[in-house]
Amino acid sequence: KFILATTEKHKIIPTILSRCQIFDFKRITVKDIADYLAYVAKSEGVDAEEEALHLIAQKADGAMRDALSFFDQLVSFSGNSLTYQTVTEQLNILDHTYYFRIMDQILDRDTAGLLLSVDEIMNRRFDGQHFLIGLGEHLRNLLVCQDASTLQLMEVSANLRQKYSDQAGRCNAAFLIKALEIHNQFDQSYKISNNKRLQIELALMLICTATVGATLQPAEKKNSLIPPDGVK
User: Fold this and answer.
1) Which has the closest alpha carbon to 16: 25, 28, 1, 4?
2) Residue 86 carries which DSSP code?
3) Which residues contact residue 82 at a Cβ distance below 8 angstroms, ignoring those fewer than 6 apart?
4) CA contacts within 13 A on the Cβ side of 14
5) 176, 117, 109: which is closest to 141 by C-alpha?
6) Residues 75-125: tens digit of each pLDDT
7) How far apart (Å, rounded) are the C-alpha atoms in residues 24 and 9?
8) What's the whole-model pTM score?
9) Which phi and psi angles does 14 have, rounded to 5°?
10) What angle do the packed helices 96-107 and 158-168 form, to 10 degrees?
């Protein structure tokens, strides 16, 4: 008996598939990976923060083997204490706090703050494409928070889910859908652009303009380049 394993079943020719008994396995969820990492951490006497384990699980992208590999590497570096900050630094992950800060700046129409945040991210050598992907995920999570019945679609910790819920209260679905449309446009054009930093800045500026009349708690900023409501 031969056991064949693949993540791309569609690439196997039909003559082989027709002679196999097929078992389809579901993708391992972030929660399942984080729970198992918590079990491993407890067994090994490692004091690990819940947020840190969830971040490792998200980075593993459904692969338990990768999650355990990341966990071993991080524990070897940090010892018996695994923190959220350690994971973000060692795995070179853009912290969630950046996206919450940038979203607050968008909702406040703080364009000067947005430019400074982009500069900080670029100076830390984070890839612009990864930033755009993370921004899209952040906007999507805020949209999911608009309805209590869809909260289960968010694969984040309880603490982070509450932060998303609080920020989602500042904006409505119409704005978030418009923001996602703008994001998708620039995500597609980013790779072919000669000025990639400008693509990120322009995307954030356009999302910022979409807040006019679309947010629940608009705030005026003296240093904003975006005119207040009713001003042309």
Assistant:
1) 4
2) H
3) 41, 46, 47, 48, 49, 52, 53, 71, 74, 75
4) 0
5) 176
6) 988 888 898 888 888 887 888 889 999 999 999 989 899 999 999 988 888
7) 10
8) 0.70
9) -55, -30
10) 10
Residues 155, 58 contacting (CB under 8 angstroms)? yes
Q: What are phi and psi of 144, to 5 degrees?
A: -60, -35
Give the distance, in angstroms, between the CA of residue 49 and the centroid of all CA atoms in the same chain: 19
Residue 129 CA to residue 190 CA, distance in Å, equals 7
Q: Which residues have a Cβ under 8 Å from the Cβ of 72 and sit 6 or more positions away?
A: none
Cα separations (Å) of 9 from 4, 14, 60, 95?
A: 10, 10, 21, 35
For residue 230, give both structure tokens: 């009713």
The C-alpha torsion from 214 through 215 and 217 to 220, rounded to 10°, is: -70
User: Which residue has 């994971």 as its token pair?
Assistant: 87
3-7, 146-150, 216-220: range with highest mean pLDDT: 3-7
- Tell me which amino acid residue 156 is: V
CA atoms within 13 A on the CB side of 195: 5
